[in-house]
Write a structure and sequence with these properties.
Blueprint: E1 4-8, H1 13-24, E2 28-33, H2 36-49, E3 54-58, H3 64-78, E4 83-86, H4 101-129, E5 134-140, H5 151-171, E6 177-183, H6 190-203, H7 210-216, H8 226-237, E7 247-251
Parallel strand pairs: 1-2, 1-4, 2-3, 4-5, 5-6, 6-7
Organism: Fonticella tunisiensis
Protein name: Sorbitol-6-phosphate 2-dehydrogenase
Keywords: Lipid metabolism, Steroid metabolism
């Protein structure tokens, strides 16, 4: 029996890496993304480079009907869901006095509400089919410590930790485990790259100096890589972590230790 992973936000950057990584780990992979073309590209590459099955789905994780349809399509085409990776995320930086309510709501919807909706629908499938599954949210160190000029993102990520612990308690009786991965700065991710102009303005430094500024804050003196995330995720999704649930795991190079 081949396990199936559903990667929400799997069409580019870290999500693309994790989709391809789980295929290499022997999972059939459903790549879901709000941009269907990106999801399709990743899915086709998985089929070309591995022996695993893969499908692409265009879905907005904040829309309940689209999430239900997405989960139904995965079950219909791949038969089951053993692992949900919720990787959809957005951020926009501004001081609280200039932070628009629309932006705040957008951050909450994508980073938190979408996670809730996907976990809700996937857990129904796992329970119905008796699957001892795993749900993993890609979170951030901003879910452990506040982040200057990032009120919407940090609030949503803190919420993700509480939601993860609550889901873990709800689903323990079904042998479904739930975790959040608290990532350090993914300096090579599309999201970080997009925020560099805003961070340069916030810090009063040149855009070319932003990455080094964040590296200098890390005890291990480097950014978080996609491989770092994949290595930890692989363990927590595996049977080797069968006694672990409800954890928020730091992948921060020592920058956050609690």
């Amino acid at each position: 029996m081949t396990k199936v992973a559903l990667v929400v936000g799997g069409g580019r950057s870290l999500g693309e890496y994790l989709s391809k990584h789980m295929a290499k780990e022997g999972y059939d992979v459903a790549v879901a993304d709000i941009n269907y073309e990106n999801a399709l590209k990743v899915s086709e590459e998985i089929k070309k480079t591995t022996r695993q099955k893969s499908i692409a789905i265009g879905a907005d994780a904040t829309d309940e009907e689209q999430v239900k349809n997405m989960v139904n399509e995965v079950v219909e085409k791949l038969g089951r869901i053993d692992l949900l990776i919720y990787n959809a995320g957005v951020a926009k930086a501004a001081k609280i006095t200039d932070f628009e309510l629309e932006t705040f709501n957008w951050c909450i919807n994508v980073n938190l509400t979408g996670y809730f909706l996907c976990a809700k629908e996937v857990s129904k499938v796992m329970i119905e089919k008796g699957i001892p599954g795993c749900i993993i949210q890609i979170n951030s160190k901003s879910g452990k410590v506040g982040s200057k000029h990032n009120a919407g993102y940090s609030a949503a990520k803190f919420g993700g930790v509480g939601l993860t612990q609550s889901l873990a308690l709800d689903l323990a009786e079904h042998n479904i485990r739930v975790h959040s991965l608290m990532l350090g700065n993914l300096l090579d991710s599309d999201m970080f790259e997009s925020l560099i102009p805003q961070y340069a303005k916030k810090l009063g430094i040149k855009e070319s100096e932003v990455k080094q500024y964040y590296i200098d804050k890390v005890p291990l003196k480097r950014g978080c890589t996609f491989e770092d995330v994949a290595n930890v995720l692989t363990f927590y999704a595996s049977d080797k972590a069968s006694y672990l649930t409800g954890q928020s795991i730091n992948i921060t190079g020592g920058q956050v230790m609690h």
